[in-house]
Amino acid sequence: MNIHCDEPLSSSLSFMENLSYSSSLLPCPPSPPLSSSSPSFLSLNPRLTGLGAYNAEFKGHGDNNIEQSGYLGLDMSNSSSLDHRRVPEAPAAVDENDAENALKAVKKKGGKKVRKPKYAFQTRSQVDILDDGYRWRKYGQKAVKNNKFPRSYYRCTFHGCNVKKQVQRLTKDEGMVVTTYEGMHSHPIEKSTENFEHILSQLQIYGASL
DNA sequence: CGTATTTGACCTGCGC
DNA sequence: GCGCAGGTCAAATACG
């Protein structure tokens, strides 16, 4: 995955002001509900949490005004469109299949819909794509109403892993990136920590030059 | 040449 | 039923 840095990091002073290099880096976003059927992505992914180092701000989503939390706790009831035209490929995590099967069963019976839980959080960053350690393949991009930035759709490239994520920059606050995860990884982190450390080191170098 | 990205078309759900 | 918006597919293209 490429981290693109079209804009120099120096373009945002406030961005740098938000940096904290302490060992605690950031308060961990509150873990998503850790029931057996719910993703525990954030709590299981220290590298992502670490990325908060140059995020340094986890806030509620717009009108929700949920402070102190990057985890927005979205149930994403607005995620109306799951693609059911094709049968999912290889079986993924059990939880994933449970959600899928429930959805199918529900569709047959015409009952209430069961959707995969989604978890979203905001990240203040100049780059859209945060290296969370997993490999993602972009499969779509859409213009979103009332937002001048497009939303990008990514899928985990690990065979059988059906985790998806959406990335979108806010119009109101262009420095803020909203990342939404759907599903739970059924495999360990695929990449070494090199990339993340590289990013961090770059930031630290820049910070030192201020 | 294999892999990743781009992008227009298509599908689905929802509100009116 | 129709139109809109969101989500996904897949062929074309770019890239290493």
Automatic annotation (TrEMBL):
GO CC field: nucleus
Domain WRKY: 125-190
Protein name: WRKY domain-containing protein
Annotated keywords: DNA-binding, Nucleus, Transcription, Transcription regulation
UniProt-listed SUPFAM superfamilies: WRKY DNA-binding domain
Leader sequence segment: none
Protein localization: Nucleus
Pfam families: WRKY (PF03106)
GO molecular function: DNA binding
InterPro entries: WRKY_dom (IPR003657), WRKY_dom_sf (IPR036576), WRKY_plant (IPR044810)
